[in-house]
Each structure stands twice: as C-alpha cells, then as structure tokens.
Amino acid sequence: MDPTPQRSRWRAILSRRCPKCLEGAVYHGFLKPNLRCPECGLSFEREPGYFLGSFYVSYGLGAAVAIPTVLIVLFFEIPVVWLFPIVFVWVGVLGPLIVSYSRVLWYHLDHSVDPR
C-alpha cells in the first residue's frame, strides 16, 4: 500500500484544504470559510446543521489542550487558583484555531464516510 495518499491527506488537513481534491482552500483569509472549493467546486455545507458534528471534534481538540495544561499545573504544583486563568488564556488564544481545524477535520471525516 502506498503511504503517499494518506500523507497528502494529513498535509491537506493541516493546511486546511478541500477533502475531495486536497488542493482548494477551505478558508480564504484566516477564519472566513469558503462556501465552495475554489478548485473542484465541492460544497462545504451540505445541509442546515451540518457542522453539529464538528462540535464534537472541537470538544476533543479543546480537551487535548486543557488536559495537558491541567496536568502540567498539577505536576509543577502551581496553585490551583492559576489553573482557570491559564486555561482561559489557552482557549482564548487557541479557540479560533480549534474551531477552524475542527471544521476541516469534520469535512475530511465526513467526506471519507460519505463522499458526494
């Protein structure tokens, strides 16, 4: 089995590219999503409520940021009072990226299960 398609799939996810052609940008600008892929024309929103699944992905990515932060605070015995401001800053800084990448991951997951 050739590992190249899988590698390019991960590259497409990290660079926020279309799940069908792996070339077209999902976003133009930093956080403004395209309605269609500029390369292949794939519609990024299939129906109302399509992005509800990306909430689960976003939750997982948020937990992937918050849990190590909590463990580091506990390991270095930083007062727990600092935990909430630290997590708040992390989520505030990384929140837009988490939402952006959760949508892209949802596109790719959905496209792999149900390509249209």
What's this, in brief?
The protein is mainly α and 116 residues long. The chain is 57% helix and 3% strand.
Could you describe the 3D structure shown?
- By secondary structure, this protein is mainly alpha-helical.
- It has one domain.
- It has helices at residues 4-14, 52-75, 83-113, and strands spanning 27-28, 32-33.
- The protein has a two-stranded antiparallel ribbon.
- The longest helix has 31 residues, at 83-113.
- The mean pLDDT is 88.
Main attributes?
116 residues; mainly alpha; two-stranded antiparallel ribbon; 3 helices
The averaged pLDDT comes out at 88
Number of separate domains: 1
What global shape is seen? elongated
User: Unreliable stretches, pLDDT < 50, 5 or more residues?
Assistant: none
Instruction: Calculate the terminal CA-CA distance, rounded to whole Å.
Output: 25 Å
Walk me through the topology.
Elements: H1 4-14, E1 27-28, E2 32-33, H2 52-75, H3 83-113
Antiparallel strand pairs: 1-2
Helix pairs in contact: 2-3
